[in-house]
């Protein structure tokens, strides 16, 4: 039956199309419910702007996780990298303007994540162990920058308002849309994207197919580093200032992007995971926004909800997964 594969492909597209319609309708229904219980405040444009502004830099971090987890590795130092990258975006931004914001965050984020992958690749230390150790080192560097006389004024001064353009609408959305197009192509339509996913599926098989393991891992470090670097200057452009994290509290910074990634992983059978990320970011921040509107404390119960989401999404996303996260 020569037409059987075509028929199956058409049937799959039809099912996916139906899922997308139902998924969008479900999101719309939930948003209407949120608007009703908030007394109409939720769908006000001023409130929607807050949600949309919040999703940009976590989406870039979650996209970085897409490449990171696709090859079977995890890195617990990403939060501390973001702190140092945000410091660099602020310092060089105040010195050199908008180009300094971009280049400062991008350079530090890319460099540190790439260094991480050099260590993961050539030492054989499990990435989660090395990542925790690196997080402590990066946190110590951030703390020293804060207390040292010459650098303290640099890291405690907020980024000047005139250089925070990229954290404001519509420019942040332009960056998000451009990132979506580029990352979708890179993840799904390039050889390196295919190699990364093959490596995560089975390292021995990937090696037998002629895929360079070390080269691919270093490419993951470079790509993830660039995405984390973008997240650094986007976060600094939005918040204006970053606080020092110690005692591994920098890990808290990756929880929301992690929840976004895990939710996207659940839906990726129907919608490509790269496209899922900003959608899931909007869903997650909409939930936290309505909790805030309803008066749920942001520092206590909302973190409990976030932890619950990560556990639930992790269980659902890994239900049919095979292998061990390194």
Walk me through what this model shows:
The protein has 326 residues and is mainly alpha-helical. It is built from 13 helices and no strands. The protein has helices spanning 4-37, 45-70, 78-96, 98-123, 127-147, 152-156, 171-189, 191-201, 203-208, 213-239, 255-267, 273-293, 301-317. Helix 3 packs parallel to helix 5 and helix 11 runs parallel beside helix 13. The protein is globular, with a radius of gyration of 20 Å. Mean pLDDT is 84; it is low at 322-326.
Task: Briefly say what this structure is.
This protein has 326 residues and is mainly α.
Q: How would you describe this structure in keywords?
A:
326 residues; mainly alpha; ABC transporter involved in vitamin B12 uptake, BtuC; 13 helices; disordered C terminus
Tell me the layout of helices and strands:
Blueprint: H1 4-37, H2 45-70, H3 78-96, H4 98-123, H5 127-147, H6 152-156, H7 171-189, H8 191-201, H9 203-208, H10 213-239, H11 255-267, H12 273-293, H13 301-317
Number of H- or I-type helical stretches: 13
**C-alpha geometry:** globular
The N- to C-terminal Cα distance equals: 43 Å
Q: What integer value in Å does the Rg equal?
A: 20 Å
Q: What fraction of the residues are assigned to beta strands by DSSP?
A: under 5%
- Give the CATH architecture: Orthogonal Bundle
The overall pLDDT average reads: 84
Helix content: over 70%
Low-confidence stretches: 322-326
